[in-house]
């Protein structure tokens, strides 16, 4: 096997597409747990704006089949190096690959507030570029949950004039309060107890004081943690980041371990679907070039 791609989201499928078109022998192993599974639609992807994420993946798999790329459903349990490259085990199957492309994504660690996880991807959102247009001019609340919450509130103000910032456990600075006042962002002090849902619709945010602030959408800032457990056996450790942690790679996606490339949210916490797909394509080209150099060296020896 030339390349095993671990992860079958936009990054992994696009990387596999490039490699399949380069006539490489490629296997994609996918556990079937995409980060954006709770979302009904994805936005900001040229020609695919508003498309359900699952439809994009299904179309990607169909395209890969035309190039002889195999997509297997399963969870990779181990990855090790050997003299010929890498050994990948999933289920009852073990395969060897000359190169790896790891696109395992990240996990969103959500605030521990009742209702947030249940509404995640519906009326609890995080990215204004992904969801802002769909909730424009609606009453939006930003639930302070981390160092990026102030910036998040400033961004969402572009999509609505009815914006409330729930301080929760964060203490705003005087400058931040002045900024919010100037931009018309209302600050609500006190700790949030839970989200209020009526008839499967978010209607408000309840404070521990008992006060309920009516909102139809709530934005939160999850801690984003790269799904990197498999990479530790290869010597790759996650790097801390103010918003979570990721695994470093160079502009082509090459990690610090020769033969291992990364793409998508495992190495870029801010990557949207289209950015992850582009990262996969770039990594696929780099992997093919690396294999070509090895092929050339073997026939020239």
From TrEMBL:
Residue ranges of domain FAD/NAD(P)-binding in the record: 1-277
Protein's recorded name: NAD(P)/FAD-dependent oxidoreductase
Family matches, as PANTHER family: THIOREDOXIN REDUCTASE 1-RELATED-RELATED (PTHR48105)
Record bears the keyword Flavoprotein: yes
Catalytic activity: [thioredoxin]-dithiol + NADP(+) = [thioredoxin]-disulfide + NADPH + H(+)
Molecular function in Gene Ontology: thioredoxin-disulfide reductase (NADPH) activity
Keyword Flavoprotein attributed: yes
Highest taxon listed in the record's lineage: Bacteria
UniProt keyword annotations, A-Z: Flavoprotein, Oxidoreductase
